[in-house]
Design brief:
Chain B: InterPro entries: Cellulose_synth (IPR005150), Glycosyltr_2/OpgH_subfam (IPR050321), Nucleotide-diphossugar_trans (IPR029044). The complex is a heterodimer of chains A (110) and B (675). By secondary structure, chain A is an alpha/beta fold. Chain A is 40% helix and 33% strand. The chains are: A alpha/beta (110), B alpha/beta (675).
Amino acid sequence: MQIEQSEREGVVVLTTSGRFNMVSAPRMKARIDETVAAGNPRIVVDLSGIEFMDSSGLGALIGGLKTARQASGDLRIAAPGEQVVTVLRLTNLDRILRPYASVEEAVNGW
Amino acid sequence: MPSHAQDEAQTDTSPRRLLLLRVVTVLSLLAGTVYLTWRWGWSVNWEHWWIAVPLVLAETYALLDGYLFGITIWRVKRRGAAPPPSPDATVDVLITTYNEPVEMVTATARAALAIEWPHTTYILDDGARPEMRAAAEAIGVGYLTRSDDWDDRPRHAKAGNLNNALLQTYGEFLLILDADQIPKPEILHRTLGWFQDPEMALVQTPQWFSNVSDSDPLGSQAPLFYGPIQQGKDGWNAAFFCGSNAVIRREALMRLGITGYVSAVESAVRSALDASGRILARAARRARKEDADTATAVRKVHEGVRKARADLDAGAPYADVTYRFQQTVREASRSLVDRDLAAIRADLAELGLDHDVGISLDPGSGIPVVRDDVLEELTTRDLSPLSALEEVSRIMRAVDVTRADEAQPVMPVATVSVTEDMATCMQLHAAGWKSAYHHEVLATGLAPEDLGTMLKQRLRWAQGTLQVLLKDNPLTKKGLTAGQRLMYFATMWSYLSGFAALAFLLAPVFYLVFGVLPVHAYGLTFLALFTPYFLLNQLEFLIVGYGVKTWRGHQYSLALFPLWIKACTTAAANVWFGRELGFMVTPKVREGGPHRFPFRLIWPQLLVMVLLVVAVVAGVVQLLTGNNLTVIGVGVNTLWVGYDLLVLSVIIQAGLYRPADHDPSDEQNDEELVS
């Protein structure tokens, strides 16, 4: 899994690609924690490049959401592919986290 | 004599024996049903209902237990060898420890390192002992302790220990081992293949104890459970997870964690919003009298609560709704803060306090944070807007998606019970996963070596099982198949035996001493109906337990009746009234102490045994002096007493039992209270 970082209107966008699974989840969680610790509690995770996500990946997103909220920020997810949408629905996580259609939409909504 | 390892005796139910078993089971249940029908319909002596009804209820309990057992073994599943595993399966071996000796854990870790399948080994040290860390580093295994997030939050014992480790490791499969369970090198090669089925979540292997002598006076080996019972449950896709010697698919556990997180957030946010209506109304009333601005702010928050509830009802995601709500609260309070701060500063100056020291703004909530002593001063001066805001900020913390009351938002291993294994397994089954029981000893452990420790362990199992029954009843739980419901319920039902045992033990005493008849007559009808039931039942157990020793387990299920009753009362008090269970970690080694017979632990059983002997003497004397007792009545009851005494005698053996090496002590164990 690759993670690239950019910034838009005061929001950090983490653009991910590859497999977001039990192997990469701890790394992603650490990356979100670092971003928040560096003073950027508003984060959008761009999932458009993710081919496969498992429940450990979802766990990392939930962990990241907690870190961001505790710093009065928020974590949003954008542009999930079909497989990611399926796991969100399968675990009911879509009842908590709304997937934004695009990064723009997620950033604009703030 | 030093304790020596028994052979790893295991049953093997061949297809022919299974057929015979089924036939005998059906006959035994038929005979039992006929007998019980007669008992209820024709024989209950209502004149002495206070003993007659408990006795017939106890007999009904036993017959239902027989039905559940029959259903269990009906589908005994012999799996044989697993298919070859996928060569790229990755595995974490997790060794859980709390206070076991470092040498013991190290020995287990060394054996874990020698497991042939590629894997990473971790010691999960809930005691966070520096010497354990040093030992782990010395032999080159991973060492994990709780993260800071667990400080001041519920620790959830072993479930918490595993949940903490799950987020720090990343193998596709997890082999869970208790600190004393020495795995064989081939354990993963033999079990991983079952996961070729993508729906397989769990493979459990037997627990076998190496420090138990042939006579096994403490009844540690459980060949009937790790044999026909688990194989039978497996036939219904309900093989149990037993906490150790099991391999679990990480994805299955994590998925439980995620769905559990979702429902925990939903119920926490809903109940916080529901409760906040009342709190805010009160705050608004108070504020209205004193201060119009605060009243306005509270009203805005109240409006936010209403909107949040409406949005949730309309299906909006919780993260959005809670975020918006928190924004509303921030804005509402910020409008007050400037004004209030000015007023407070003026007041502080009047008090001669430095305003920079006593008060600041919380960067997160935007709500002023006031040092305790300063707050004291302020409240005595009746500056109340702050208290209204305090309540608001409490609501704000609760209406969130962070699960701030727990150390981790995601808790894959169930924490509803002290037997996290059964609770977790039932969740997995309810979510549609499969489990397997692999009938081959692949790890050997250490059983408790004294009565006190053994009793604590049994109490914990029983309490945990009953907690699950009361909190998450398998008969009504969504997602389980009918067979799975019965398999979980069968185990829970068996832990209610203490009450039945009391009736079985006391009924003959009342007859032999006072001539109180719980049945109309102990005559030929009774013998004709009871004898076939009893004999067929014994035959059934003979067949099912062929080649292994099931008598000990049989004895203990009756002989530990005070413990089973205590488990029921404490578990009910815990679930219904929030009392603590007072559960202790089972020590794996005994500490030194004086050699004493543990009267204190088993006095109820000893008392009952004395009563039974006295009753027989009284019965015989009365028969010879020739009044109301009959020969059949005294005969039946004496045989009955003899059977009871034979069963109960195990407790004396257990109390006298001393393993060769060291002296037992009663209790100097580290205790960990959980609720």
